[in-house]
Amino acid sequence: MKMNDFPPRPSPFLLDVYARLASRYMAPHVRLAGFQSRWIAFRRDDLEQGIEHAVLDTTAGRLTQARQAELMAQAREAAGPGRALVIAEMAVKRATNEEAEGDEAVTSRIMTVALRETGQPSGVLGFVELDNDGCPTGRTGGPMPLLTLDASSD
């Protein structure tokens, strides 16, 4: 990557996948109360054909580097040799106002959606804003470029 390519632009492919996932989680019937996190691996070639069949779909819990490596190894084995993967990580997070206390400190809840592709230096990151009941408000943020730490080790 050259310096004039910084920040990297997300690939049109990942932007399309992000749009599909974000719109799914923004549907009127969606309720994410109790949702914490999800780690999903797809075969890239399946997504290119419009097939959203996960090779691994799990509640990730706390994602340490060791846990991410374990999930990636499982996904690679399930996908088959030499297959590029698209990883989707989703988590509900709370934004807080550090000057407030108690329930007033929580200013909003969002579901983050991060996508990256194995072997690529960047991905995309965005969010869907949620109300207090875990329903989408219709507001989204992103997608924005997301740098991956080491594309070669995926």
Describe the structure.
- The protein has helices spanning 12-25, 44-48, 65-79, and strands at 37-43, 54-58, 85-96, 106-117, 122-130, 136-147.
- By secondary structure, it is α+β, with helices and mostly antiparallel strands.
- It has one domain (38-153).
- It has a six-stranded antiparallel β-sheet with strand order 2-1-3-4-5-6.
- A hairpin with a 5-residue loop joins strand 5 and strand 6 (136-147).
- The longest helix has 15 residues, at 65-79.
- It is globular, with a radius of gyration of 16 Å.
- It starts with 11 loop residues before the first helix and ends in a 7-residue tail after the last strand.
- The model is unreliable at 150-154 (pLDDT under 50).
Instruction: Give Rg in angstroms.
Output: 16 Å
- The total of beta strands comes to 6
Q: What is the number of domains?
A: 1
Query: Which structural class matches the secondary elements?
Result: alpha+beta
What's the total helix number? Answer: 3
Coarse shape: globular
Report the portion of residues in β strands. Answer: 35-45%
The mean pLDDT is 83
- End-to-end C-alpha gap: 18 Å
Poorly predicted parts: 150-154
Order of helices and strands: HEHEHEEEE
Helix coverage percent: 10-25%
Largest sheet: 6 strands, antiparallel
Sheet with the most strands: spatial strand order: 2-1-3-4-5-6
Q: Which assembly state applies to the chains in this document?
A: single chain
